[in-house]
Amino acid sequence: MNSWLEKPWVIRVVALVLSVLLFVVVAFDQNVYDNDDGFELPFGDTTNDTQTMEDVPVQTQIDQEKYVVSGVPETVKVSLSGSVSLVTSTVLQRNFDVYVDLEGLEPGTHQVELEYSGIQDRLNVYIEPQEVEVTIEERASKEFNVTMDAVNRDKVEAGYEVANITTDPGKVLVTSSKSIIDKIAIVKAFVDVEGFNESQTIDNVPVKVYDNQGNQLNVKIDPPTVDVEVEMNNPSKSVPITLETENELPDGIKLEQTELENKQVQIFAAESYLEGLEEIKTKPIDLSKITESGSIEVELALPSEVRKAASETVNVNVSIEKIEEQDVNDVAIQLESEESGQTVSFVEPDTNAMNITMRGYPSDLEQINPEDLQLLIEVGGLGSGEHEVPIELVTPDDVPESVQFELQFEQATINIEEAE
């Protein structure tokens, strides 16, 4: 069957038959309406149809140069009824007009009917709405400056700001009724600057008109668009970095030095803010967590006014010291107030020297000269025999307080003999 339909002569025959049938239907339908004798066909009005067209534009007939009209709908609904062929062809072609005729009417408010032209009389026409209330006003024009509004200023590329915006032309002519012209509060164009990182020109930006309540007004604007030039700026300043710390170091650890690898950072922000910016602080280093010397990456505490920083972190070299022990050997024990004729000998320790252990941070221990350490025992007023006497350590006045000393013996046992 499919192969039979693919033959060219079959397709031509079918097309011819369909054309003849369509001609017969149209001719028959035409005869129904042209029959002046009122003859009714036996199958009645089965060839009639009704179709509705939405959004049919409405024209206004008035001197547009002199008057402004409000209240006329932009579109209406039109329903057609009549023969199938006539309704169908009219709906498909839409070669008719719907309008309100305001010629000859004075300024003011009027109730007027919607009319049509270009539709054959044999069709029944229904327009919805059938009539409208319109207001006719004298036309007025006024020149206004165009202001600019940059949308998404806070979303320009980091570090940049909108320095200036200008329009070409800077003024537009607005035309409408006098009452509408008097309501105009601002004439504005909008440009989205999201992601901008360089100056540029945007062509054909629409101009919009608003009243003092922010309502957009439907007016004629000449020209309806403007070219907008956006100038971008990238202000920056290099400022010192200040290191902040918090909490205390663990016991037995001393912070010897902290050194910033970068002393300054370049900050991008508004010029007005940069003028008063003197430093950028780091987020505090928690000293309680430092146990070794090394490099620490610290975030900068960037204020909200900062759009961008050349670096958001800085490396800090931290040097710490831990308590160490250092032995000073064979420090001589000196006798104080030794009386003549007495001979003093050491029982414990068995020599007149002993060791001293120093505990402290290396930098503090380096300040101590072992030769400046003295060990003393007081023997004045002691008679013959063995005695236990305390050993006193004498240190220089400038010994750091953090340094602690431990004596090999806290006291000595000595034997005193009187000369005969």
Automatic annotation (TrEMBL):
Pfam families in the cross-refs: YbbR
This protein's source sits in the domain of life called: Bacteria
What protein am I looking at?
CdaR family protein
